[in-house]
Amino acid sequence: QEEEKWDFVLVSDIHQVGSEKEMKRKKFLDELRKKGFIIKKIEDRKVFYGVRAPKQIFWKYQRLLRKPNSRLQSPSDSQEIPVTTRIRIVNFILQNTVTPDLEKLRDLMKKKVFEAMFPLHEKEEKREFLKEHWARWSEIFCPQPIEKIRCYFGEKVALYFAWLGWYTYLLGFAAAAGLVVFIAGITTFNSSQVSKEICEATTTIMCPLCDQQCPFWLLSDTCTYAKVTHMIDNEGTVLFAMFMAIWATVFLELWKRQRATVVTDWDLYRWDEDEEELAIDLINNLQHEPRQYQHSYFRSTIILLLVLVMIAVMIGIAHALVIYRVIATALFTQSPFEFVREQANMVAMVTGAVLHYITIVIMTKVNRHVALFLCDLEKPRTFSQRENNFTVKIFTFQFFTNFSSLIYVAFFLGRINGHPGNYVRIAGKWRLECHPSGCISDLFIQMAIVMLLKQTISNMMEYLIPWVKCKLCKQQWRPRKRRMMLGEEEEDEDPCKRQWLSNYQLNEVNIFSLFDEFLEMVIQYSFTTIFVAAFPLAPLLAFCNNLLEIRLDAIKMRRLCRRMVPRKANDIGIWLQVLEAIGILAVIGNGLVIAITSDFIPVQVYKYLYSPCLLGNNTDMDCTTGYINHSLSIFRIQDFEPHTKVPKTVPDFVREEIKECRYRDYRNPDDYSYTAQFWHIFAARLAFLILFEHVALCVKLIAAWYVPDVPQWVKNQFLDRQHNDLRKELSMMDFSTDV
Questions:
Q1: Cβ atoms within 10 A of the Cβ of 47, count?
Q2: Contact status, residue 8 vs residue 91, Cβ threshold 8 Å
Q3: Non-local CB neighbours of 186 within 8 Å, separated by 6+ positions
């Protein structure tokens, strides 16, 4: 007997006969029957309804969206329609069927009339192929079967995996370049003159790092951090930042070509989503009137104000994280544990980064609810428009959630803190300062911790939670063995029941399932490009993560989750514009990190304006000799503010013998005003920033022009197809005229 095929399964609790829920369910199913749907009921602990659409629905679809040369006269003439298209059409009709009470399926599910709806994973050749050659860890370095993915999950999912595979492939080149720069920094950090001077500064007394009970300290105490800083803050980093700006552009241009090739093979190059949606609307309801385009300036203003409020909240959270670090540093300096006391700044920085990750996890959930609420206020015309609006809002919120703290550390912390004797404080209490080794090491450590946590804990939870849920659900639904009476024959179980139940026990999917994967990757892309000058290993971490992510997502979709409703698409949608915006932000962000956060510019200014090499007496001397002493200003102890309490006795020092201390800045020792060197460096930073960004943007534009978005053979193939279709039409017109 041939196995019955069902397009969708609806699941409901067993409602009392005559109850309101039971009546609503009956009305909805009656509406489906009026449209010619076949419905099969199976009762267990839940009630399952198998739904199969009539052939004429798919014939109408083919007729309305046929090619110019097709001639389908009746349903019997229709070609076999792909399963993904069947599921998509049936899902649309189910979602838009209206009961006499003017309720849709979405309303009925909110009222618990129906609990779930899903298409079935079927035992077909494509599914088994994906299980063997895609959803396996052993296939981690093998190419993905994109065509098979498309035939089973639809074009939208296939394009996601095609994009992710292409991104990962090109990320390998960026990862290799970042690793070379990092290793080059490691091999040269012992020979760095700047690091040597810091490590040898055993008599350079630095000013206390906080107001209460923080001791004086030696510059040589930061020797290890100075070497780490040199690994990421060197000439190679500047070249790598420029390389990544070009890489981001080339990646997107090559993806556009790859996408054009793929969708041309699928015959979707000039597919129109609005036309298809209108066609299915009319198939579902011939009296349907399309929703008109509309725009409200008042509503847009309200939404803009609410978005600004959310951004202000996220910036406030970033400030709170910085304040936490300041307070934590002060507390850790008084810890009874020697290690915590000595490494107070580092411990505060690490715990602050972990706290930053926790806020990202929490705010991600908040951001989603707020973005959905704002989309409801907008009242978009179509689902795709709603999805685009939601994408822009959620990415904006997530960007500020992930990067507000990093932006603050990179560009503001340590720039507006004043100087000893006149510190800028929050609420008159807390000083805001970077790690003693500089803000770039601070940024490096924060990015490393956040990326590692996101790629370990988040990925583990992303896989383990569905796996555990799936196991628990199967355990809960395990059939109880019934005792057989003497002479009683065992009833044959309906094969549909076993299949429907096994699909029901899998994890639920929704319209955000694929969206979440895209958002996760785009945020990762932001980490990989925007602050790569401070963390050259970001592409390597992303590359390793993506190799696992592809198979992780494949296993989830294929084994742990219900079948996703396939969606037709010929590109990755508004995500492409988001990625292009990130490319521009990457140029600005890396330019600012090199110009403002790193010591690259001050070192270069010193080499060419103030170094001993300018005297020309000793050609063997390193031109950065004396830089550290040159970059530290002098502060007289007597000028401390009255409420600053410095310990009277500190290790290795006698308090009364210390008359002055040093701090990182360019100020005169007399009145603490800025020196001429400060303004030289300020001008050099500004000039470098303008030059770097203009050169990088020009190179990006040249790369975008040089690499065509669409391969010429794709354009020629489409041109030939149009030419042949027109010739065929004209030939048929001449034939009918002759007859």
A1: 18
A2: yes
A3: 231
Radius of gyration of the chain (CA): 32
Query: Can you list the alpha helix ranges (DSSP code H) found in 487-574?
Result: 495-504, 513-530, 538-555
Buried b (16+ CB within 10 A) or exposed e, 5-16: ebbbbbbbeebe
User: What is residue 71's predicted lDDT score, i.e. its pLDDT?
Assistant: 41
Give the DSSP letter string of 563-608: PPPP---SS-TTHHHHHHHHHHHHHHHHHHIIIIISSHHHHHHIII
* The pair of three-digit structure tokens given for residue 651, joined into one six-digit string: 């290790």
Residue 68 has pLDDT above 60, yes or no: no
Residue 717 has pLDDT above 60, yes or no: yes
DSSP for 555-568, written as a single string? HIIIIIBPPPPP--
Give me the residue spans of the domains in the chain.
Answer: 8-120, 146-478+497-602, 712-738
SS (HEC) of 617-648: CCCCCCCCCCHHHHHEEEEEHHHCCCCCECCC
Q: Is the distance from CB of 551 to CB of 136 less than 8 angstroms?
A: yes
Query: Cα-flanking dihedrals φ and ψ of residue 2, to 5°?
Result: -75, 135
Angle formed by the axes of helices 383-411 and 273-284, nearest 10°:
140
3-state helix, strand, coil in the chain (%, to 5): 65, 5, 30
Supply the DSSP symbol for 212. Answer: B
Tokens linked to 480: 């109880």
d(Cα 122, Cα 500) in Å, to the nearest integer? 10
- Of the candidates 575, 530, 527, the residue with the CA atom closest to the CA atom of residue 162: 575
Amino acid at 612: P
Q: Please write the tens of the pLDDT for every residue from 95-107.
A: 989 999 889 999 9
Q: Give the confidence band of 704 by pLDDT, cuts at 50, 70, 90.
A: confident
Q: What is the rounded CA–CA span in Å between residue 592 and residue 594?
A: 6
Cα–Cα distance for residue pair 48/40, rounded to 1 Å: 8
Task: Give pLDDT, residue 291.
Answer: 78
Asked if 62 and 79 touch (Cβ cutoff 8 Å), the reply is: yes
Amino acid at 665: D
Distance, in Å, from the CA atom of 737 to the CA atom of 719, rounded to the nearest integer, reads: 27
Name which of 140, 54, 138 is nearest 89 in CA terms.
54
The SS3 assignment for 135 reads coil
Model confidence pLDDT, tens digit, residues 214-256: 778 888 888 888 887 878 888 888 888 888 888 988 899 899 9
CA distance 7 to 149: 19
Q: Which three-class secondary structure state does DSSP give residue 653?
A: strand
Give every CB contact of residue 324 below 8 A, 6+ residues apart in sequence.
Answer: 348, 352, 355
The pair of structure tokens assigned to 525 is 């892309």
Residue 217, strand partner residues: 206
Q: What is the mean pLDDT of the chain?
A: 84
Q: Which two tokens stand for residue 129?
A: 């192929």
**pLDDT at residue number 521:** 92
pLDDT tens profile 374-410: 988 888 877 888 888 999 999 999 999 998 888 888 8
Mean pLDDT of 586-613: 87
